[in-house]
Amino acid sequence: MKAEEIDTEVFFFPAAGHAEKAGAFTNTQRMLQWREKAVDPPGDARSDAWFMHQLALRLIAKGKESNDPLDEPLRALNWWYPEDELGDPEMEAVLAEINGWYTNPQPGADGVVFGGVDREGNPITVRRWRDLPS
Question: What's the pTM value of the predicted model, to 2 decimals?
């Protein structure tokens, strides 16, 4: 096979290594671990979460330009994840979304304002595991 004879596109994504991004990590012992980012990725390298985040933002923007009923799910999508200084979505916010939310906050309850505010200006409060009393 010759690449120039194949009617497909090839894209190279300069992906960050596992120590260059925050989030879940599965090691060779099949243990799931949560870890913080150790270093920023070099050059143009980005995390896989950055690629998915940017793709979602671009698809949502395209959907909002359309009146096609098929694009309604994109227009209705609530993609609120705060970003860090490199544009990566805050992975603890993604984890909180996957795990569900406690929707009855109590005045004065322990919690951490995480990521500031969402895209509509509402505060984001996530109680992180490392902030829980032992």
Answer: 0.65
